[in-house]
Design goal:
Layout (H helix, E strand, L loop, with lengths): L26 E10 L2 E11 L4 E5 L6 H9 L4 E8 L2 E2 L5 H7 L1 E4 L11 H6 L12 H6 L1 H5 L10 H13 L5 E5 L7 H18 L2 E6 L2 H7 L2 E6 L2 E7 L5 H8 L2
Parallel strand pairs: 3-8, 3-9, 6-7, 7-8
Antiparallel strand pairs: 1-2, 1-4, 4-5, 9-10
Length: 254
């Protein structure tokens, strides 16, 4: 089976960013273990994400990427280890409490409410902030959603649904945005636009982003650092400038 990193044409590489200041991590994970019943899936993961940093978590299907995202959000219980958001432990909290602490999640498959309008979908993300109206800056970020705010979510294209899912997550004003396989089922032109949007969100808001991904070209376009999972453990980690693309490609091959 061919490697998945060839699924889309190479993207134009962005110029190097300035060094990220030495600040406390926006997200810090230490010795994280998680299991489905008696079957342990994550084996002692430790990593951190700096304020304003984009980290890509890569690996083949079944290597633990989605389990990591769900564990960070409280959808899979922590067996042992710590998860801290700006120094505050959240591993024992329910999912909604983690959102209140600054985590937001865009799941694989987007999981929008198909019978609700675009505006109603975004409004579901406002609960934590107490706001009653969708902030204009979200529509400025995703103009297509403003044009379609009265349309049902199920009537949007895959790319539009992904934008809607991201906007809904951003409505909670998170400190750390988690995206699980955002390029899945999206055409290349929309993937490139998504990459530009994620970098603009990071630059404008100082938001930290963790994105799980299999498409190497997209990860290298958006990420400041790449982490590779193999069987629920970190087997490779490097900053964008020092990444060994051939080695990462081998990890993604089957």
């Amino acid at each position: 089976m061919a490697s998945l990193q060839t699924a889309h044409p190479p993207l134009v590489q962005a110029p190097p960013r300035a060094a990220i200041p030495d600040l406390d991590p926006a997200l810090a994970v230490h010795d994280l273990h998680a299991a489905y019943g008696q079957s342990e899936v994550l084996h002692g993961l430790s990593f951190s994400v700096a304020p304003g940093e984009i980290v890509a978590v890569m690996g083949r299907n079944g290597m633990g990427k989605t389990t990591l995202m769900k564990t960070l959000m409280g959808l899979v219980p922590v067996k042992s280890g710590t998860i801290r958001v700006e120094g505050e432990e959240v591993a024992g909290l329910k999912s909604h409490a983690r959102v209140a602490k600054g985590l937001a999640y865009v799941p694989q498959g987007r999981m929008i409410f198909s019978t609700m309008t675009v505006q109603e979908n975004i409004e579901t993300g406002l609960t934590v902030t107490g706001a009653r109206k969708v902030p204009q800056d979200l529509y400025d970020m995703f103009p297509v959603l403003l044009e379609m705010k009265g349309r049902r979510g199920g009537n949007l294209s895959g790319g539009q649904q992904q934008q809607l899912a991201i906007a809904r997550a951003l409505a909670s004003r998170p400190k750390v945005l988690l995206l699980d396989e955002p390029t899945e089922g999206i055409q290349p032109s929309i993937i490139r636009e998504m990459g530009r949007t994620l970098k603009k969100i990071r630059d404008d808001r100082g938001l930290s982003i963790v994105v799980s991904e299999q498409v190497l070209s997209f990860a290298l376009d958006v990420a400041d650092r790449v982490i590779v999972l193999e069987n629920g453990a970190i087997v490779h980690e490097a900053p964008r400038a020092g990444i060994d693309e051939a080695q990462v490609a081998r990890f993604l091959s089957v």
